[in-house]
Amino acid sequence: MKKKLLAALAVLPLVALLAGCSGGAADASGSAASGDDKVVKIGVVGASDPYWAVYTKAAAAEGIKVEVVDFAVFEQPNPALSAGELDLNQFQHIVYLADYNVSSKQDLVPIGATAIYPLGLYSTKHKKVSEIKKGDTIAVPNDASNLARALLVLQSAKLVTLKDGGTIFSTLDDIDTGKSKVTVTALEASLTATSLPDVDGAVINNDFVEKAGLKFSDALAQDDPADPNSLPYVNVFAARAEDKDNPTYQKLVKIYQTTKAVQDGVLEVSGGSAELVQTPVADLVSSLAKVEKDTKAQK
Predict the structure, then answer these.
(1) Gyration radius of the chain's alpha carbons
(2) Would you indicate the residue range of the signal peptide (predicted)?
(3) pLDDT digits (tens, 9 = 90+) for 41-57
(4) For residue 229, how many other CB atoms are within 10 A of its CB?
(5) Over 60: is that where the pLDDT of 159 sits?
(6) DSSP string spanning 251-286?
(7) DSSP string, 4-40
(8) Is residue 154 a contact partner of residue 132, using CB atoms and an 8 Å limit?
(9) CA 90, CA 68: separation in Å to the nearest integer?
(10) Quick count: other Cβ atoms within 10 Å of Cβ 62?
(11) For the domain 40-117+229-298, what is the CATH code?
(12) Per-residue confidence at 129, pLDDT binned at 50, 70, 90?
């Protein structure tokens, strides 16, 4: 809920860049929402998911106008939030957020939990992991947090061996190539799914699974979102630090967490794979602080 060893192979579509600026400029205080008739802008990756329309209606019923701003890739919503072009974003887990804060010297904070999504290995050439042969190529996301998590998935599937046993900071350099079955290549996250015709498998973020015509049940392997050690991978609503106690934003989190039609929609879009959570904000903040500390130590 949050990444970067090889250069991304795609150029961000112009529409994604424009999306972060749609609907008017930020006010003088650096906030996208201003005035009595303010619209709260929430940046996401995957605004076409039907539950976002349900969510905006639920917010409107509570007197809050919400504009969901769509981005094509993960790298854009955090800078847009930091710049005041958004009021909130909701697309990342704590590890991703921590890496952004440390790398960009920002202080975005989690103000509410949404879900943990498993990260899965998919293939259009093989129906089970055992069919993958030595020397085959597997694509993984290239942002640092999802790259490390993908490598842990591959290690659990016995396709790679990581020299240090694997951590949330593992990189391609940590792969013991002599003991690993496959070759791993890192691509921009949105390209892992589209790379399937050219590779033997790919670890694909949930946002891109169905867009590639895949089903979540097609995963050959995945991590376990119910694992207690998965806290750093809880997806969150993020805000600027000065807005962490904003009552409107806190209410929007509650609407997301407690509106049954929204929660049902999240589950449906995830193919039933999401683990819906309402982790206390204090736990999210504590986890972020720890991961940021560990991330700084790795830099």
Answers:
(1) 19
(2) 1-25
(3) 999 999 999 999 999 99
(4) 9
(5) yes
(6) HHHHHHHH-HHHHHHHHHHTTT--EE----HHHHHH
(7) -SS--SSPPPHHHHHHTTTTS---TTS-S--STT-EE
(8) no
(9) 10
(10) 13
(11) 3.40.190.10
(12) very high
Quick check: 153 and 121 in contact, CB under 8 A? yes
- Report the first-to-last Cα separation within the chain, whole angstroms: 20
What whole-number distance in Å separates Cα of residue 197 and Cα of residue 212? 11
| Residues 174, 292, 86, 89, CA torsion sign | positive
Give yes or no for residue 212 having a pLDDT over 70: yes
- Pairwise CA distance, residues 289 & 102, whole Å: 11
Q: pTM for the whole thing?
A: 0.79
Domain boundaries in the chain? 40-117+229-298, 120-222
Average pLDDT over the chain, rounded to an integer:
88
Per-residue pLDDT at 33? 56
Q: What are phi and psi of 201, to 5 degrees?
A: -175, 165
Question: Which of these, 173, 167, 4, 153, lies nearest to 138 by C-alpha position?
Answer: 153
**Confidence class of residue 26 from pLDDT cuts 50, 70 and 90?**
very low
| Fold match flag (40-117+229-298 vs 120-222) | yes
* Residue-level pLDDT at 298: 86
Higher pLDDT, 1 or 103: 103
**What DSSP character marks residue 223?**
-
Structure tokens at 149: 């998590």
**CATH-assigned architecture of domain 120-222:** 3-Layer(aba) Sandwich (3.40)
Taking the C-alpha atoms of residue 210 and residue 77, their distance in angstroms, rounded to an integer, is 21
| Residue for token pair 């009595």 | 36
